[in-house]
Specification:
The chain contains 5 helices and no strands. It is mostly helical. Helix 3 packs across helix 4.
Length: about 150
Amino acid sequence: MIVGTLLGLICIVAMLYFALVQVPRKRRLGRFLERETLTESQIYHSYFADSHLPASLIEELWNEVADFGEIPRGLLRPTDRFDTELASLRGWEFGGEISSLNIVAERRARNLGPDFDLAQIHTVRDYIEKFGALAQRQGKIDGVSA
């Protein structure tokens, strides 16, 4: 009887996990699946070669956005907007790791000064350029820290 109850609870937890985590994640990833997968080199040379930021810094910030957003790195684009392509699905706004990126960004924004408004960052490119420039000013070229 106890074993049956435990198995039932495990099944319920597994179904809830699938419904609350995996389904929204797969639906959000669907926004990106028709894109060509780019290498780190292609991303840098296509979008950031003229930015005056080191490739290693761009890669680190790029990967941070991809990792927090749970999006394959090669499918992300600099024009992806945080309130559109990278946003959580409607009804799931408080879930997902992309909301955790906001905490990291808020910490960094404080270092940009009191006049900097995080609302100025709309796209992945904005994120990389603003926080990349901050890292360069602070001498953290090969390692961005929040």
